[in-house]
Amino acid sequence: MAGIYIHIPFCKQACHYCDFHFSTSLKNKDSFIIALKKEIELQKDYLIKTDTPSLNKKNDEIINTIYFGGGTPSLLSQSDLMTIFHELNKYYNISPSAEITLEANPDDLTSKKIKELFDTPVNRLSIGIQSFYDEDLKLMNRAHNSQEALRSVKASQDKGFENITIDLIYSIPSLTNEKWIHNLHTAFNLEVKHISSYCLTVEPKTALEYLVKTGKIKNVEEEKSVEHFEIMLSEMRKNNFIQYEISNFCKENFYSKHNSNYWLKENYIGFGPSAHSYNGSSRQFNISNNILYIQSLENKKLPFEQEILTASQLYNEYVLTSIRTMWGTDLNYIETCFGLDYFLYCMNEAKKFIASGEIIQKENKLFLTDKGKLFADKIAAALFHINYKKTSVNK
Ligand code: SF4
Q1: Quick check: CB of 106 below 6 Å from ligand 1?
Q2: Shortest-distance Cα residue to atom 3 of ligand 1
Q3: Average pLDDT of the residues in 356-380
Q4: Does residue 284 lie within any of the structural domains?
Q5: Domain that holds residue 353
């Protein structure tokens, strides 16, 4: 099983906190679709396990997830989407039951747009709500308002989309504890099946960083972020949402297959500017520039850098992702895949976190406790193997 990620590098306007790759000019959208088609064709052998690349045969991995992320994939027309699906079907074995997710912004989800999306193979919507309060949306420079947030979810459900996830952000300067509880309850009342919830972070070179530095926006105290995180865990539990990854919660059977594949180290291929790919031994990073991406593919040249992953890197990636999930870090897996030295190393480094109550060991697996979840990245970094060697090959 493998996944496909497609990065759509366009947005209507720039959210203040965003450091993803996108352009607010849509003038290259048509050239981008042509380049994307070429990339899908040229990369057709990336996931093939056999030693001999195929001439005509389709990629031999079964694709069980496709994810349109961005950027703002809901800016694509129905015909753009059908063109992309047509191209994917030419070169990849897509399972008839594949989970096919499209990220959408509430302001794009008019009744007409929802109907058009429903008539494509897309069967899961990821709606970027972020908050149900106008002042929070304004502060973050989101393109939608609170009414559009509510309407977009209800209208998508009315049309027949059953599998809907929404994004919510906490630790926004204008978000009080009461408002945060209200945002969570609004999501529960809407009966969405999956919620991804992130802490607002001030990323370098974003408008938010500038606004904080110049004192126009006051950064949130760590204490308040911790309160929001604890409120989130408590409210999610009360409402029977399973926290299967630190930032991801769902009702039974509504796990994101696509993200779970990442965390469980399944292979995936990424198309579009800034997209990444992983096939078990190497990682590829596409160029984060729309014009250069298009020009490269016009010349039939794939615009990526490749990194051959060392055992240390593979181990570090496994620890970083697995420790954040409810499936935990499997020590047997570490011993089998990386050897006894890595197993002993991991156990030894984990000891202090077990003693401090931030990690719990059950059978042969390590899990973060609620206390540990607050410091997940720091704990994962402490478990990293030190022999990190990077081999970079420019294509
Ligand atoms: S819509 Fe999404 S990708 Fe675009 S600027 Fe906002 S957060 Fe970033």
Answers
A1: no
A2: 71
A3: 96
A4: no
A5: 310-389
